[in-house]
Each structure stands twice: as C-alpha cells, then as structure tokens.
C-alpha cells in the first residue's frame, strides 16, 4: 500500500515528501491500536459483562460485548469482517493515490494522520472480532433518564475523530468545491 507511486506527474509533490507523509498514517495507527487494545483488556479483566463503573452517573465505563455491526445493530458475520476492511482500504487508496493525480489536492500531514486514526480504529475493532468474535465496548454516555448513546470504545472514537477532522480539512482545502464544479 505505501510502496505504490503516482507517476502521472500531476498534483504530486516529490516522492520523498509523499513517503514521509504516508509514514505519518502508520505512526498514527500504532498508538490507536495499542490504547484501544489495552483499554479493552482492562475492561474485560476488571468488569463483568453489563457491570458499570461508577454504578450511576452520565459517564460510565460499562462492559458491553458487541457481537453486532455498528452501534450493536445485527449483521452478517462475513459482512462484519469484509465490509469495514474494504471501506478503509478504498478510502486510503482514494486519498493517497487517486486524488493527488487527478485533482489539485496536496496530501497534508493532517490528512495522513486522519487516515491513520481511521485505519487504527478499524484494525482495533477487527482484532477483537477475529480474536473474540465480538467487539468490547465500554464508554457509556447517558444523556437523560434512561436514554443513552450506544456504548463505544477508543477505536470507535478514533474513527469518528479521524473522519470528522478529515471532512473538515477537505472542506477547508476546497476539494469538494473542485470536484462538484
């Protein structure tokens, strides 16, 4: 993935700069996966399924075993493993290899970090699914009374932060305007 080169000669900076920025993505993946797996390990070791710490409050650590799809929705097992991987690889391929060669888009360091956050989150959740058959979720936010957001984990947060920041960066660079004009 990181070894491919764009030889079109348009929209690209030097290969050395491009390679360094791609390494930023990889460097973002490592702490995301590490923090995600360590936090999930701690939850599984210290809380029983359904147990919360503290027992009351609007922000709790609650051990949830998510065997479903996004936000606990039921889903096909093969789809659960294949679809996120294909989506992440498509996004990364699009950003690293298609955009710089076909649009006046310069891959910034922040874009690379965002892609690393997204990939790291996907890898963290995939590791759980392959090893355990489910994803360990534990961040439980109760908004009011009994209504609460579905439990999530560090990997989910990384994906959301990476995606939102990437969208913001793309809007600020004018890429969407260039594509739709």
Structure characterization notes:
- This protein has one domain.
- It contains five helices and four strands, in the order αββααββαα.
- It has helices at residues 15-46, 77-102, 109-132, 154-173, 175-180, and strands spanning 52-53, 59-66, 135-144, 147-148.
- It has a four-stranded antiparallel beta sheet.
- A hairpin with a 2-residue loop joins strand 3 and strand 4 (147-148).
- 27% of the residues are buried.
- Residues 1-15 have low confidence and may be disordered.
What's the short story on this structure?
By secondary structure, the protein is an alpha+beta fold. It is built from 5 helices and 4 strands.
What attributes characterize this protein structure?
single chain; 181 residues; alpha+beta; four-stranded antiparallel β-sheet; 5 helices; 12% strand; globular
Strand tally: 4
Ends distance: 30 Å
Q: What string, H for helix and E for strand, traces the elements in order?
A: HEEHHEEHH
Helix content: 55-70%
Structural class: alpha+beta
Residue-averaged pLDDT: 78
Strand order of the largest sheet: 1-2-3-4
- Largest sheet features: 4 strands, antiparallel
Uncertain segments:
1-15
Count of DSSP-assigned helices: 5
Number of spatially distinct domains: 1
Radius of gyration over C-alpha positions, nearest whole angstrom: 19 Å
- Name the beta content range: 5-15%
Sum up the overall morphology in one term.
Answer: globular
